[in-house]
Write a structure and sequence with these properties.
Length: about 200
């Protein structure tokens, strides 16, 4: 008789259990590692920009100052603000309160031409297949405060805007609704609702 002891073999159920535990342990370890890395990086700012590879050529402070100088000499301009942020060049021009719509339109056109002379629209404000470029907003108004719908206010507010993906710019009239009767009706409904809410709260 042989004195050698027979080696014990794992049963099929034990093998299945071990394999199952390994399969479960792998994603658990990965998830635990991700949590650990995230915990270590908590409070650390993520550096980078969503415009990486875009906005080339960039609009510089010198460009902005050159645009400011051209706009500041426009007649009837009382206040001027230029904001360059988040891939947008936003210009706010406060003009004399007594200007007509035609005069405001003229200032919008003059401002657009001034921007184009310093930072050509096709170069700085038009995207290509490989990169995004700047968006442009030019706000020209006699007063920034909205007037009541249906009033005879002479307030003027024109907004020229061009997204870099657009071929050309558009101009919106923010001082007067496109459909005055509909706007007045909506305002009336709003006033009725506010009145009912006020009576209900008494």
């Amino acid at each position: 008789m042989s004195d050698k002891k027979e080696k014990k073999r794992l049963s099929r159920s034990a093998i299945v259990l071990i394999v199952g535990l390994i399969i479960i342990a792998i994603p658990v370890c990965i998830f635990a590692g991700i949590l650990g890395i995230s915990a270590l990086q908590t409070g650390t700012p993520r550096e980078g920009s969503r415009f990486d590879g875009d906005l080339e050529p960039a609009i510089t402070d010198e460009n902005v100052e050159a645009i400011r100088q051209k706009l500041s000499v426009i007649s009837q301009v009382e206040d001027l603000e230029i904001v360059l942020a988040q891939g947008q060049l936003r210009i706010f021009i406060d003009t004399s309160d007594n200007l007509s719509e035609e005069q405001v339109d003229s200032i919008v056109t003059t401002a657009y031409n001034a921007v184009n002379s310093v930072t050509p629209i096709t170069t700085y404000f038009t995207a290509t297949d490989s990169k995004k470029m700047y968006d442009l907003q030019i706000n020209v108004y006699t007063t920034a405060e909205a007037s009541e719908i249906g009033s005879e206010s002479s307030r003027q507010y024109k907004l020229l805007h061009k997204n870099s993906a657009e071929e050309t710019y558009s101009i919106d009239d923010l001082a007067h609704p496109k459909d005055a009767s509909l706007a007045a009706e909506l305002e009336g409904l709003t006033q009725e609702t506010e009145s009912e809410e006020g009576e209900g709260g008494e």
